[in-house]
Amino acid sequence: xxxxxxxxxxxxxxxxxxxxxxxxxxxxxxxxxxxxxxxxxxxxxxxxxxxxxxxxxxxxxxxxxxxxxxxxxxxxxxxxxxxxxxxxxxxxxxxxxxxxxxxxxxxxxxxxxxxxxxxxxxxxxxxxxxxxxxxxxxxxxxxxxxxxxxxxxxxxxxxxxxxxxxxxxxxxxxxxxxxxxxxxxxxxxxxxxxxxxxxxxxxxxxxxxxxxxxxxxxxxxxxxxxxxxxxxxxxxxxxxxxxxxxxxxxxxxxxxxxxxxxxxxxxxxxxxxxxxxxxxxxxxxxxxxxxxxxxxxxxxxxxxxxxxxxxxxxxxxxxxxxxxxxxxxxxxxxxxxxxxxxxxxxxxxxxxxxxxxxxxxxxxxxxxxxxxxxxxxxxxxxxx
Length: 384
Description:
Elements: H1 2-15, H2 17-29, H3 40-52, E1 56-61, E2 69-74, E3 84-89, E4 105-107, E5 110-112, H4 116-135, E6 144-149, H5 160-168, E7 172-175, E8 186-190, E9 192-201, H6 217-229, E10 239-247, E11 257-266, H7 272-280, E12 290-299, H8 306-321, E13 328-331, H9 336-340, E14 345-347, E15 354-355, E16 363-365, H10 366-381
Parallel strand pairs: 3-6, 3-7, 7-14, 8-13
Antiparallel strand pairs: 1-2, 2-6, 4-5, 5-16, 9-11, 9-12, 10-11, 15-16
Helix pairs in contact: 1-10, 2-4, 4-10, 8-10
């Protein structure tokens, strides 16, 4: 049965190869930066039409500061729980007008364009994997639900709660973020991600006439930065980076304020409480200054727990049937897979094979990505 389905899916996807590339072209040409919410309307309309074409009922949710998100599910699903969730996002990091300098190209087995790899190719894969099963008369092993948001690149602040609710009610989540690196590793681990702001309030004074009358916020911040960097722990996969600093008013004034923006990555869920406590527990050492710390780790780590490992093994079995020797890796960046993993079995990086996420050389390997579409179709058809 598996061999028959593998052959049928592979043959079907080759027959519709041009249609697949055409859809991806239409997705990429609809520029959709996260920070321009109104830019999402066109691509969400296109996705609505495509999901409806594979017999899913689409519900759109408007955003307050984002372009909103959509949920697609079988029309006859009703209120029953269970199923498998396909997760993706339609927003990109690229500003409007990027197509003028990074045009869509298809040559030498590659397709380029802003957002093609991260992650509009994954959206096209969802549609064509579902279409393959529909055209072949094969029912997915569990009802497929689809979640696409437009704020993933800025932390999924508005859509995260809806994603939590969906993930809580399904048996597994398949995340169509791009695979890891040109070799196409599936992402069985992701670091958790946090953002913190440390603000120091000092006391201004004339740097020449009354230097002892002030309390330098910049001096205090320099001590705090050293404490923050001391929290780095490569063996535990913890990185703490002070990426931005600001402060002072004039060169001849003892600085009355300063601030630092801190990026935190953590590999293990068990390390989160102590790391947050250490950052929020920073205390001033300079007399006359106060400090405030805001922020938290908003995306928890995606860890290789038992249920995630079971899903990874299923993917490897499906890959073997397709002649793919799948390998796994851990990504330093976060995704919505970090969120779903808290509630259900999750496998990330099922999307495009290529390289250049957020970079000018962004591209996908077309044939390898078509094979990943077949992989997704086989997983969808495989019982938990």
